[in-house]
Every structure is written in structure tokens, then in C-alpha cells.
Amino acid sequence: MVTLISLITFIVLLALTAFFVATEFAIVKVRSSRINSLASGNNKNAIAAKKVVTHLDEYLAACQLGITITALGIGMVGESTFEFLLHPLFSSIGLSETMIHI
């Protein structure tokens, strides 16, 4: 049961990392001229996107913080989870304890 919860936590953290990375790429790749033209036409989504583009540093820092925190969580949860799952497999094929822990 603990392994199932750990595996689900790992998957959620991985999905959150992907979300933060995708958000960062989207913020960096957006064309300001296109956002400005849509915002001048009272497009609510473009107006919100314009706020992000004008405060680019803050939003990129938030994305980087999200990526870092979720990556640390992945390492914390993932190491023990996958060690628990893979240790019996590696032991069964005759690997030494030293090799298993590498």
C-alpha cells in the first residue's frame, strides 16, 4: 500500500514538473506582438497573457521554483520507491549489493 501511494505521488510530481516546464516554454515562446493585437481586441485570455509577458521575470522564477521543488520531491519519493521495487529484481539476477545500490 505504501508503495502504491509512493508511486502515485511520484507520478503526480512528475506531471507537475512537466506542467511547470511546459508553462516556462510557453511563456518564453509567446510572441508579444500577437498578444498585444489580441489584447487590443478585448480578448480576455490575451489580456491575462499580456500581464504574464510584462512580468516575465517573476513568472519564469515561479516556474523555476516549481520545477526545482517538484524535482526534489521526485528524488525524495522516487529513490526509495524504485529501490523497493527493483531491489528484488536485481538481487534475483545475481548482482552484488554494491552494484544494486549504484
UniProtKB/TrEMBL annotation:
Q: Which GO terms describe its cellular component?
A: membrane
Chain ranges of the CNNM transmembrane domain: 1-102
Q: In terms of domain of life, where is this protein from?
A: Bacteria
Q: Which UniProt keywords apply?
A: Membrane, Transmembrane, Transmembrane helix
**Classification via Pfam families:** CNNM
Q: What is this protein called?
A: DUF21 domain-containing protein
